[in-house]
Amino acid sequence: MIVKSLDDIIGTDNETSSDNWTSRRFIMKKDNVGFSLNDTLIKAGTTNFFWYKNHIEAVYCIEGEGEIEKLETGEIYKLKAGTMYLLNEHDKHELRAKTQMRMVCVFNPPLVGTETHTEEGYYPLLTE
User: Fold this and answer.
1) Would you call 58 exposed, middle or buried from its count of C-beta atoms within 10 A (0-12, 13-18, 19+)?
2) Beta strand 21-27 with 92-97: parallel, antiparallel or unpaired?
3) pTM value?
4) Is 124 a domain residue?
């Protein structure tokens, strides 16, 4: 059994940030469960381009408001607490946060924990 609290992660190597977001990584590849789990804060008023060409990501919004645009089609979806989206087609997307947003993110394959976004907006597929 693995039990962790947010207090166990904040301020450690399992917390990573950019100017627009902070990701707290609860479950990673080394936990050997087939997925990773992050608690992510998106700063209010930010626009974020992401493209997970190497991962499938499911995101559940638990706080805040914003929108996501699927860039290939121009479709825009409103996001608020209680909304989930799944990037099952490796969708290039833009996430715009109206207020601070808190998201629970699940990645498959699992993240190692040291990934940072490339200039093209994706995480490299790391093995260690």
Assistant:
1) middle
2) unpaired
3) 0.91
4) no
Tens of pLDDT, residue by residue, the chain (128 residues): 999 999 999 999 999 999 999 999 999 999 999 999 999 999 999 999 999 889 999 999 999 999 999 999 999 999 999 999 999 999 999 999 999 999 999 999 999 877 777 777 777 677 66
Instruction: Enumerate residues 6+ apart whose C-beta is below 8 A from 106.
Output: 35, 36, 37, 38, 57, 58, 59
Which SS3 state, helix, strand or coil, does residue 50 take? strand
- Asked if residue 17 is part of any domain, the answer here is no
Q: Which of 51, 32, 56, 42 is nearest to 107 (CA)?
A: 56
Indicate the number of domains in the chain. 1
In terms of residue numbers, what domain contains 60? 23-108
Neighbours of 46 (CB within 10 A): 17
**Please, which residues bridge with residue 58 across strands?**
86, 106
> What's 100's domain CATH number?
2.60.120.10
Q: What tokens does 30 get?
A: 């080394």
